Amino acid sequence: MDAINGFLYGLDVALTFNNLLAALAGALAGTLIGVLPGLGPTAGIAMILPLSYSLDPTSGLIMMAGMFYGAMYGGSTTAILVNMPGESASVITCIDGYKLTKKGRAGAVLTIVAAGSFVGGVLSVVGVMLFAPALAQLGLLFGPAEFFALTAGGLLLFSRISGGTLAAGIFPMAIGLMLSTVGQELVTGQDRFTFGISDLTLGVELVALVVGLYGITEIMSVVTNLQTQVKPLPVRLREMFPTREEWKRSVAPYGRGTALGFIFGLLPGPSSTMASFASYRLEKGVSKHKEELGEGAIEGVAGPETANNAAATSSMVPLLALGIPFGSVTALMLAAMMVHGVQPGPMMITQHPEVFWGVIASMLIGNAMLLILNVPLISLWVSLLRVPNHIFLPIILMVATIGCYSVRNSMVDVYMLLLVAFVGYCLTKLNFQLAPMVVGVVLGPLIEKHLREGLFMSLGDISVFYTSPLAIGIWALVLLVLLLGPIQYLLSKAFGMKFKKIIPESSE
Amino acid sequence: MTASTISKKKSYVSAGVFALLLSAGYLRMSLDLPMGALDEPGAGLFPILVSAIMAFASLATIWEGIKAPSTDAIEIPSGSDRARLIKLILLLSAYFVALPWFGYSLSSFFFSAALIRLLSKSSWVQCALYAAIMTAVVYGVFIYLLKVPMPSMALGF
Description:
The structure holds 2 protein chains of 2 kinds.
Chain A lengths: L2 H12 L2 H19 L5 H13 L3 H26 L10 H10 L3 H34 L4 H18 L4 H15 L2 E2 L6 E2 L13 H19 L19 H22 L5 H16 L12 H16 L1 H7 L5 H12 L8 H4 L1 H22 L3 H7 L4 H18 L4 H19 L5 H23 L6 H4 L1 H27 L13
Antiparallel strand pairs in A: 1-2
Helix pairs in contact in A: 1-16, 2-4, 2-16, 3-4, 3-9, 3-14, 3-18, 4-5, 4-6, 4-12, 4-14, 4-16, 5-12, 6-10, 6-12, 6-13, 6-16, 7-8, 7-20, 7-22, 8-20, 9-18, 9-19, 10-11, 10-12, 11-12, 14-20
Chain B lengths: L2 E5 H24 L4 E2 L2 E2 L3 H23 L5 E5 L1 H41 L4 H22 L12
Antiparallel strand pairs in B: 1-4, 2-3
Helix pairs in contact in B: 1-2, 3-4
């Protein structure tokens, strides 16, 4: 099936009533999650993960993908209206978005963002449609050595690129890998590190881990900063129309943001965040109105918001084509697919075309839904921002508990929620990154599987991991990126060369 | 927010030492697992590699702690903010312990009433009213409509 026929088949799948409903529910829930402080896309998706188990795999994944890009859009609303990013990818939007709000252009900026998210999402879907099958074809050449290089190297890269110092990335990654070894080992059925607790035989529950790490940890932070809740001014429908000048100035940032976002989405790391920061940097460098950036320029909002949505969409490529998640949200999607018995990877396009093409086509529909619904619904989202913390925090905690318990009907998972939240809170205070822990838990079993398969198939010859040209290529790339920092350091020491970071230290 | 600080140097070194001990304990338990052979690796091989990674990460944390300037500090909540955080943790612990004993609805009602009281200046009557509405809505949506199984006490609540 070529890309066009595949996409048409995907549209057939995505346009069924159930899948349309899943896309709509996902897009709306995602926007809600993005708008509400205390819940990011990762925790939000983890909370609905158990619900997605009751849907068929295609609908479940469509719903989760919808939540992902819905949250990207929702996160920008709080950034623009109250100078508080709903998620990290919208941090940069605060700078010009909030200044424009203070100039009375909030409604127009939200429309520009909605349109940009749509453009970025849709063009990125076209890229996914063309790129994912080609990558899956390449993936067919991969054996255990190549997959080991991709998963282990990808995890290593992810933990280094996630931000902060060396320890800030690899320390949580190591905890994640440790947690991934808890439970019954898949090959021989040997129990590992269960301490006689039968509920741990199936391993550490990902929902408990993610909701604890992202949801409860964030709620702990909100509770310690209670007095900072800012109430937004109302936004009326008639204020939602941008001027001709604003549209004109947004077109080029839309294009640049889409291209950057698509590329960043394919790479390991916090792709949406990196894409929005890189786009802002690019606008500062090439925009005709660069002197206005930082003072309330529409380019400073249009570019980054387009880029983060494009990156959210293209981050599905490595997941669908190779079965490798390069972020915490795609890691959750991988977990959901495995629960449904769908093994993502190069064979997925032939074994489960309805899932592969259905999810891709649904992204186009979901983005259109977001555009149609979100502009008129903006006053609803704004009114949600006025809900006091003491109302929505107990609701989030009750729903988080239900979500966590319902996966395996286990109280151990609920207790773990609190333990993980405490660890997550301490790690956050130490400026450590949380995402490498989640990706470590998901990739750990895959790394172990490919390592053992490789050794088994080569009759114990470890050279199998470094003699295949593809594996060498992957490791060389990983090494190059890992050594980029030290190389830059040496160049700056030796020749006084200066290098800029995509994400400034203060924003990491 | 009221905040006090702790030294980054001390925090990183303490975290690193704790993790190093953890990796040593983990390695000890990994050695009890079957190793197998290189051509047929057992369940213990990967955990041993992970314990090495954990040890390296711990040493990196200790190293960063030692290298950190003594003026670098980590902000932690203090005063009423810290008290609120501790109360939240205690409330959550009590809620999770109560769940299997008193069922979802009763535990959730008391938990949310206490949390609302902690986070707002509402009277106990208002808190109870809000908590009853919230618990009923969450119960109705998740347990009644979506049939999510939760621990229940008498009369299925």
